[in-house]
Amino acid sequence: MRIAVLMKAVVEPESRIGLGSDGEVQCANFRYELNEYDLYAVEEAIRMAELYDAEVTVVSAGPEEAVQSLRKGLAMGATDAIFVPVEESMGDAFLSAEVLADVLKPVQPDLILSGVESNDLGGSQVGVLVAEQLGYVAATMVISVKVGNDGVLNVRRELEGGNFVDVDLPMPAVLTIQTGLNEPRYPSLKGIMAAKRKDLVRLELSDLDIGDSQLVETIEYSYPPRRERAQMIEGSSEAIASELVSLLRAKDKVL
After folding, report:
1. Who's near 197: CB < 8 A, 6+ residues apart?
2. Nearest Cα residue to 39 out of 189, 188, 187
3. Could you point out which of 17, 150, 164, 205 has its C-alpha 20 to 30 Å from the C-alpha of 106?
4. 3-state DSSP percent of the chain in helix, strand and coil, to 5
5. Would 223 be classed as within a structural domain?
6. Position 249 in a domain
7. Which helix (H) or strand (E) holds 185?
């Protein structure tokens, strides 16, 4: 069995985001990390590989820093990796899915895992769009997965309101993994050293058959308009209440 895992490098929340004089985002100080949800997907793929004698391929398309995430996946136990460098951010989920699906066509994985969403955009779309591109069945918000004796996937999905549902899916399939499914391992020193010897294939966008699709072009960035600073009211409770009513009547026309 071949399992593929979709991985994404996202900007660390602590990174300072600012605009230059040309209106472009200043990326020099950006630091990247592996998308948290994808970490659970990698761990689940490796556990399934250990149980069902499978191979795991980790895949990413994005900035050069995404290679670090792929290396972490290899260090955790993935078999090999595929990377597509993309200079511009692929903010369009359909294009991201098209690129990833074309990368996976020659791999022909029996199962594709991805995080349920990304920490940066949170669209929860790429996994199911990859399934649509490849003609695979899909299940989202997966919190448990097993392979039955007949090769059918036994999957538990998390629903709204704390409810769950169990479904059976034929392979090939795409599953988007929810946090809490497992406890991701830390790469061991042996795994980190072994990752350096594992295959990491680089593909260019020009190598892929993605038709006439174009990267989304960003026209302009701008800061949100400044809001009026908050006005603090001091005094006794009666004085504050009276002043607040006056402001709501005269200034904001609420009363």
Report:
1. none
2. 187
3. 150
4. 30, 25, 45
5. no
6. no
7. none
User: Cα–Cα distance between 144 and 116 in angstroms, integer?
Assistant: 13
Domain with 63 in it: 2-207
Contacts 24+ apart (CB under 8 A), 145-152: 145/44, 145/48, 145/175, 145/181, 147/1, 147/48, 147/51, 147/52
**Region of residue 77 (phi > 0: left; psi between -120 and 50: alpha; otherwise: beta):** left
pLDDT tens digits for 171-192? 999 999 988 888 888 888 888 8
Whether residue 240 is contained in a domain is answered as: no
Contact 169, 152 (CB under 8 A): yes
pTM: 0.79
- CA dist 13 and 26 (Å) reads 15
Question: How buried is 4 (Cβ within 10 angstroms: 0-12 exposed, 13-18 middle, 19+ buried)?
Answer: buried
Q: What is the DSSP letter of 46?
A: H
Report the first-to-last Cα separation within the chain, whole angstroms: 67
Per-residue CA distances from 171 to 94, 137, 139, 152 (Å): 23, 8, 12, 7
Q: What is the pLDDT of residues 148-171, one digit of tens each?
A: 888 899 999 988 888 889 999 999
Helix 36-52 / helix 66-76 crossing angle, nearest 10 deg: 30
Amino acid identity for residue 226 in this structure: R
Here the CATH number for the domain that contains residue 115 is 3.40.50.620
Phi, psi of 51 (to 5 degrees): -80, -40
Alpha-carbon Rg for the chain, nearest whole angstrom, is 23
Sequence-distant (≥ 6) Cβ neighbours of residue 212 within 8 angstroms: none
